[in-house]
Amino acid sequence: MGQGVNTKAVQVCAYLLGISIEKVQIKGNNTFIAPNGFISGGSITSQNVAIGVQRCCNELLRRLQPIRSQMTNPTWEALIKRAFEADVDLQVHGYVGQSDVQNYNIYGATLAEVELDILTGESEVRRVDLLEDVGQSVSPEIDIGQVEGAFIMGLGYWTSEQLVYNPNTGELLTDRTWNYHVPQARDIPQDFRIYFRKKSYSNDTIFGAKATGEPPICMAIAVPFAIREAIAAARLESGIPTTQWFTIDGPYSLENILM
In the chain, where does the domain assigned CATH 3.30.365.10 lie? Predict the structure, then answer.
């Protein structure tokens, strides 16, 4: 899914064990064969994985401590070799469940600048400045990618994607890219700037981080708001006051803007 979960898990593991990330490998799993499997969603997958990795690392370090105390500043390889020879169980398991839900508030602010052609209904997103409270990011570059992707997902929801059903049969008519339009390369803001709130921290359990992926979907509402302001400004030039309401049910597509 491109969430960067494996990368964050490697980072957490390497940090807790005090080893380089090159020594950590992630092996694939499958939620179909996990008895306690759950969806990857809700913007909490990374933090739940981090909690599980943390518990595994802490337990492994506890088992290794008696061996480490008998050695003088051993390398990781030497420590593991001695533990293996001492018949120490080197496989650990960490379980994360509903009781591990972390509660915190997430804040954000978004400014959007759009350009609208009132004759054709075409619009462009000239610039977006998005500030999100991601806590103390474990992996800022991955989180920036999550914010960008989530915002574009929300942009599609508000400006181009529309489900149309047959009123008589209920059949979904917009079931392919020919008539269900998702954002393309030219729909991305021409100047897209992401900022993270400074000096923010959630709690020690998840290393101060916060959920990242879903808040930008909500903040994408700034784009249709900006389009609406552009329409109001154009109407004002024609003598229609900005206080006079007009309805656009959404999405703010070319067709709906013209209508």
Answer: 5-100, 108-258
Catalytic residue, from 214, 229, 237, 255: name it. Answer: 214
Torsion angle of the four alpha carbons 79, 81, 87, 89, in this order, in degrees rounded to the nearest 10: 70
pLDDT tens digits, residue range 29-71? 776 777 887 777 777 888 889 999 999 999 999 999 999 999 9
Nearest to 104 by CA among 47, 147, 150, 50: 47
Quick one: CATH architecture of 5-100? 2-Layer Sandwich (3.30)
Q: Rounded to a whole number, what is the largest CA-CA distance in the chain?
A: 86
* pTM for this entry: 0.87
120-138 residue pLDDT tens: 999 999 999 999 999 999 9
Buried b / exposed e over 21-51, threshold 16 CB at 10 Å, is eeebeeeeeeeeeeeeeeeeeebbbbbbbbb
Residue that is written with structure tokens 């004002």 in the block: 236
Q: Classify 108-258 by CATH class.
A: alpha beta
- Whether 229 is catalytic is no
